[in-house]
């Protein structure tokens, strides 16, 4: 059994040796040597080799005849091959001899082809290099001509198109190295031009603004037909926007290096006044914008431009410290601001995004707040109404100019309404001086007119309506003084001044009417009223002047409705309009007249006091008969003065003259009563009372003569009734009647106060007692003394009873 397995294993190994690559036979042989049957395997291997040898021998025997035949044929072919070889050698020799000429020609052709190829290569290289050189030459020319935007475009084309095609040449490397330097040079040059432009417009903004304001002023002065046409300024802007839109689109270029949609020369033929932007060459801005856009630095440029313009805005908006002194200072300030925003508006509409609407509006809001603050501050220093009015017109023109460019200006008009109050105050101060000058120059006497022309001249100045006066022949006198027509004319001038300020403020007729009426009321109630009070209260004003003031104010009061009509005519607002302000002129002139009347009463009483100070009564004079007494000299002078004074009162209203006359008589009566009751007068004789009675009769005679018309009966005598009854009681010694009828309405001495009577009796008692001592107690004096004592006692009892 073991021998069979060994034989099978050896057979497998032999098959494996036959079928396996010799490089992998090692493991197979190792398995043979590892076993115990090495000799047996060798025997089998030898037997297998002998079998293979036999098979090889059989195969060789089978193919040998074919091999012999092949050798025989090969020997035959060798002879023929030798012949062919000889022929080939001969042919080759002949061919070599014949081909030497051809080879020479071929060498020449080869050289020509190499030269042709080199020439073609050279031409091709030059075709790529020449555009580079030409473009670089063009770049140099553009740089020398300072045409930087086309130079930058050329530079871009040279760098990205031409140089890559040209290849690696030294001159190309030099050019490539110079490109960043050239680009930086262009950038710096463009920025320098922009700085020069910004400095130029800063210096010339005054002129730009002046031109823009002139255009706005010209626009305002056009008639309605012209205003229907588009503004020339807007037309120019539209054309410029169209041109710049074409030139600044995506991938576009400026129209030209010097004219990037900047100037419109053809417009100069259309208008005599050049456009504000025609004064400025904006090409540096457009060039710099295009250059920085191509360089990819547009944001840097925009930020720089806006930052610099903000700085310039702050400088422009800073007013000079003495701006308020002249109108030219304000005009220069406004021109600079208008010039600044005209430039910004032009930049806004001719560039795409360099400045936007939000940026411009932000700048304008900043400017507007600073402008309003500056105007409020500087206008507050102004005290000349003409300058304020000119300033207002300048502000309106300034606002209209900027409004034409789309800037909101409502705050400026609100500020003008605030300035209206200041203007009104300044007007009131000027008119206060004017009224005072008129009053100081007035002679306070009626105006004499000798001709019809003079009369018409005054009536044209003041609405006098007096049919009786017109009937009088020349020469004649107007009832009022020069103050009346001058003051009335000044009132109208004031109204005109108020109206001038209200113009162009976009106010309704009702608002203008209300403003004028309120200002006129202030003029009447404050300024004119104070001036009249000044004229009335000033020192050394005479009664005649006061009388004339009353006459003047009466006529001015009557003219108030003419002022109402005057205001209505210039504002076209009827006075019956709801909520319409009424003039307070009537009340003003009434107050002034009442003040003059009171001053007349006061002045008249003061004059009377001056005469009364001259009274020199002998309070201890002996009793005399009434026929031997005469009126005191001071009283005669006083009565004469009163008669002359009241004769002047004929032109006064009757009530005023009557009141003045009654006041004077009462004051005389009161003053004489005070003389009797003066504490310094301790003793009074009956003779002194008789003298006083004579003077009182003179006063009563004056009162009966009616120095002023209009008194009914003996009304004026009532002013002396207190003193008359007192003197009658003492001179007639009618104490029984007085004591019996005291307190009754039918009492003869109803106006005698018991206290007054008692005081006067006390003074007479002292005189009687002194006379009794001097007369060594005469019986008549003693009886009189007893009688006085008795009357005093009864009076004291009477007073005590009534007091209880």
Protein model, in words:
The chain has 804 residues and is mostly helical. Among the domains are: 169-222 and 277-407, no CATH class; 424-445 and 481-598, Tetracycline Repressor, domain 2; 614-756, Up-down Bundle (Methane Monooxygenase Hydroxylase, Chain G, domain 1). It is built from 27 helices and two strands. A two-stranded antiparallel sheet has the order 1-2. Helix 13 (410-441) runs antiparallel to helix 16 (483-502). The longest helix has 107 residues, at 38-144. It is rod-shaped. Mean pLDDT is 79; it is low at 223-271 and 772-777.
Concise synopsis of the structure shown:
The chain has 804 residues and is an all-alpha fold. Helices cover 75% and strands 1% of the residues.
Strand residue percentage: under 5%
Give the overall shape: rod-shaped
- The string of secondary-structure elements, in order, is HHHHHHHHHHHHHEHHEHHHHHHHHHHHH
Could you name the ranges where pLDDT drops below 50 across 5 or more consecutive residues?
223-271, 772-777
- The average pLDDT score comes to 79
Helix content: over 70%
Structural class of the helices, strands and pairings?
mainly alpha
If helices are DSSP runs of H or I spanning 4 or more residues, what is the number of helices? Answer: 27
**End-to-end span in angstroms?**
188 Å
Largest sheet: 2 strands, antiparallel
Pfam families: EXOC6_Sec15_N (PF20651), Sec15_C (PF04091)
GO biological process, one term: intracellular protein transport
InterPro entries: EXOC6/Sec15, EXOC6/Sec15_C, EXOC6/Sec15_C_dom1, EXOC6_Sec15_N, EXOC6PINT-1/Sec15/Tip20_C_dom2
Function: Component of the exocyst complex involved in the docking of exocytic vesicles with fusion sites on the plasma membrane.
